[in-house]
Amino acid sequence: MAGTVAKTCLSPLALLTRRLSAPEFITQCCYHKKVVDHYENPRNVGTLDKNSKNVGTGLVGAPACGDVMKLQIEVDDHGKIVDARFKTFGCGSAIASSSLATEWVKGKSVDEALTIKNTDIAKELCLPPVKLHCSMLAEDAIKAALADYRRKQQDDQQEAVRA
Protein backbone atom coordinates (compact mmCIF):
# COMPACT_ATOMS: atom_id res chain seq x y z
CA MET A 1 0.00 0.00 0.00
CA ALA A 2 2.76 2.49 0.92
CA GLY A 3 4.50 1.84 -2.40
CA THR A 4 1.27 2.49 -4.26
CA VAL A 5 0.69 5.74 -2.36
CA ALA A 6 4.25 6.92 -3.05
CA LYS A 7 3.97 6.14 -6.77
CA THR A 8 0.59 7.83 -6.96
CA CYS A 9 1.92 10.86 -5.09
CA LEU A 10 4.70 11.36 -7.59
CA SER A 11 2.31 11.40 -10.53
CA PRO A 12 0.97 14.92 -11.24
CA LEU A 13 -1.98 13.45 -13.10
CA ALA A 14 -2.91 11.41 -10.03
CA LEU A 15 -2.85 14.57 -7.92
CA LEU A 16 -5.24 16.29 -10.30
CA THR A 17 -7.63 13.37 -10.52
CA ARG A 18 -7.64 12.72 -6.77
CA ARG A 19 -7.93 16.32 -5.61
CA LEU A 20 -11.71 16.46 -5.80
CA SER A 21 -12.45 12.90 -4.79
CA ALA A 22 -10.09 12.58 -1.83
CA PRO A 23 -8.69 15.90 -0.51
CA GLU A 24 -7.36 14.16 2.60
CA PHE A 25 -5.09 12.10 0.32
CA ILE A 26 -3.27 15.28 -0.75
CA THR A 27 -2.72 16.36 2.86
CA GLN A 28 -1.45 12.98 3.99
CA CYS A 29 0.73 12.48 0.94
CA CYS A 30 2.30 15.85 0.35
CA TYR A 31 2.59 17.58 3.73
CA HIS A 32 4.81 16.23 6.47
CA LYS A 33 3.01 15.21 9.66
CA LYS A 34 4.67 18.09 11.55
CA VAL A 35 3.14 20.62 9.14
CA VAL A 36 -0.26 18.98 9.45
CA ASP A 37 0.03 18.97 13.26
CA HIS A 38 0.88 22.70 13.44
CA TYR A 39 -1.83 23.48 10.89
CA GLU A 40 -4.55 21.50 12.66
CA ASN A 41 -3.38 22.47 16.17
CA PRO A 42 -1.67 25.86 15.82
CA ARG A 43 0.15 27.10 18.89
CA ASN A 44 0.01 30.68 20.17
CA VAL A 45 -2.63 32.07 17.82
CA GLY A 46 -3.79 35.56 18.75
CA THR A 47 -2.54 39.04 19.41
CA LEU A 48 -0.75 41.02 22.08
CA ASP A 49 -1.17 44.72 22.88
CA LYS A 50 0.74 46.38 20.04
CA ASN A 51 0.89 49.66 21.99
CA SER A 52 2.77 48.11 24.91
CA LYS A 53 6.43 49.13 25.09
CA ASN A 54 7.35 45.48 25.82
CA VAL A 55 5.64 44.12 22.70
CA GLY A 56 7.25 44.00 19.28
CA THR A 57 5.13 43.42 16.17
CA GLY A 58 6.36 42.12 12.85
CA LEU A 59 4.09 42.16 9.80
CA VAL A 60 5.48 40.59 6.63
CA GLY A 61 4.05 39.32 3.39
CA ALA A 62 4.94 37.54 0.19
CA PRO A 63 3.22 39.21 -2.77
CA ALA A 64 3.99 36.27 -5.06
CA CYS A 65 1.81 33.84 -3.11
CA GLY A 66 -0.37 36.13 -0.99
CA ASP A 67 0.81 34.88 2.41
CA VAL A 68 0.72 37.48 5.21
CA MET A 69 2.18 36.84 8.64
CA LYS A 70 1.91 38.90 11.83
CA LEU A 71 4.11 37.78 14.70
CA GLN A 72 4.26 39.50 18.07
CA ILE A 73 6.66 39.01 20.95
CA GLU A 74 6.43 40.16 24.56
CA VAL A 75 9.74 40.76 26.32
CA ASP A 76 10.24 41.02 30.09
CA ASP A 77 12.47 43.55 31.87
CA HIS A 78 15.45 41.18 31.61
CA GLY A 79 15.30 40.92 27.80
CA LYS A 80 13.71 37.47 27.74
CA ILE A 81 10.80 36.69 25.40
CA VAL A 82 7.98 35.56 27.66
CA ASP A 83 5.16 35.30 25.11
CA ALA A 84 4.64 35.16 21.37
CA ARG A 85 1.49 35.24 19.25
CA PHE A 86 0.77 35.06 15.54
CA LYS A 87 -1.93 35.50 12.95
CA THR A 88 -1.26 34.22 9.46
CA PHE A 89 -3.23 34.33 6.24
CA GLY A 90 -1.79 31.68 3.97
CA CYS A 91 -1.24 28.04 3.23
CA GLY A 92 -0.70 25.25 5.75
CA SER A 93 3.07 25.60 5.52
CA ALA A 94 2.87 29.33 6.34
CA ILE A 95 0.65 28.66 9.35
CA ALA A 96 2.91 25.84 10.53
CA SER A 97 6.02 28.01 10.13
CA SER A 98 4.40 30.79 12.19
CA SER A 99 3.27 28.38 14.88
CA LEU A 100 6.71 26.80 15.17
CA ALA A 101 8.42 30.21 15.22
CA THR A 102 6.33 31.32 18.22
CA GLU A 103 7.24 28.14 20.08
CA TRP A 104 10.93 28.59 19.37
CA VAL A 105 11.22 32.27 20.38
CA LYS A 106 9.57 31.79 23.77
CA GLY A 107 12.14 31.64 26.54
CA LYS A 108 14.95 33.02 24.39
CA SER A 109 16.67 36.36 24.81
CA VAL A 110 16.21 38.96 22.09
CA ASP A 111 19.69 38.20 20.75
CA GLU A 112 19.13 34.43 20.83
CA ALA A 113 15.88 34.81 18.88
CA LEU A 114 17.81 36.51 16.08
CA THR A 115 19.73 33.28 15.55
CA ILE A 116 16.61 31.40 14.40
CA LYS A 117 17.01 30.84 10.67
CA ASN A 118 14.52 29.89 8.00
CA THR A 119 16.61 26.82 7.18
CA ASP A 120 16.12 25.55 10.74
CA ILE A 121 12.35 26.05 10.48
CA ALA A 122 12.21 24.39 7.06
CA LYS A 123 14.28 21.45 8.27
CA GLU A 124 12.14 20.94 11.38
CA LEU A 125 8.92 20.98 9.35
CA CYS A 126 10.43 19.04 6.41
CA LEU A 127 9.22 21.69 3.97
CA PRO A 128 9.67 20.95 0.28
CA PRO A 129 11.61 23.48 -1.85
CA VAL A 130 8.40 24.99 -3.23
CA LYS A 131 7.37 25.96 0.34
CA LEU A 132 10.66 27.42 1.58
CA HIS A 133 9.27 30.94 1.24
CA CYS A 134 7.00 30.16 4.21
CA SER A 135 9.96 29.56 6.50
CA MET A 136 11.61 32.72 5.10
CA LEU A 137 8.49 34.69 6.04
CA ALA A 138 8.66 33.31 9.58
CA GLU A 139 12.31 34.37 9.94
CA ASP A 140 11.48 37.80 8.53
CA ALA A 141 8.54 38.14 10.93
CA ILE A 142 10.77 37.32 13.91
CA LYS A 143 13.34 39.91 12.79
CA ALA A 144 10.64 42.53 12.19
CA ALA A 145 9.08 41.94 15.62
CA LEU A 146 12.48 42.20 17.30
CA ALA A 147 13.29 45.38 15.34
CA ASP A 148 9.96 46.91 16.41
CA TYR A 149 10.63 45.99 20.05
CA ARG A 150 14.12 47.54 19.92
CA ARG A 151 12.76 50.70 18.27
CA LYS A 152 10.24 51.07 21.10
CA GLN A 153 13.00 50.63 23.68
CA GLN A 154 15.16 53.31 22.01
CA ASP A 155 12.19 55.69 21.82
CA ASP A 156 11.53 55.06 25.51
CA GLN A 157 15.16 55.79 26.41
CA GLN A 158 15.16 59.00 24.35
CA GLU A 159 12.04 60.20 26.16
CA ALA A 160 13.70 59.46 29.52
CA VAL A 161 16.76 61.52 28.50
CA ARG A 162 14.57 64.47 27.48
CA ALA A 163 12.72 64.40 30.80
Describe the protein.
A 3-stranded antiparallel beta sheet has the order 1-2-3. It has helices spanning 2-10, 12-19, 23-30, 33-40, 92-105, 110-113, 118-125, 132-162; strands at 55-62, 67-75, 81-89. It is built from 8 helices and 3 strands. It is elongated.
Overall 3D shape: elongated
Stretches with pLDDT under 50, minimum 5 residues: 1-28
Secondary-structure-based class equals alpha+beta
Strand order of the largest sheet: 1-2-3
Measured between the Cα atoms of the first and last residue, the distance is 73 Å
Helix share, percent? 55-70%
Order of helices and strands: HHHHEEEHHHH
Biggest β-sheet description: 3 strands, antiparallel
Binned strand content: 15-25%
The count of β-strands is 3
Question: Would you kindly provide a brief summary of this structure?
Answer:
The chain is α+β, with helices and mostly antiparallel strands and 163 residues long.
Fill in the keyword field for this structure.
163 residues; alpha+beta; 3-stranded antiparallel sheet; 8 helices; disordered N terminus
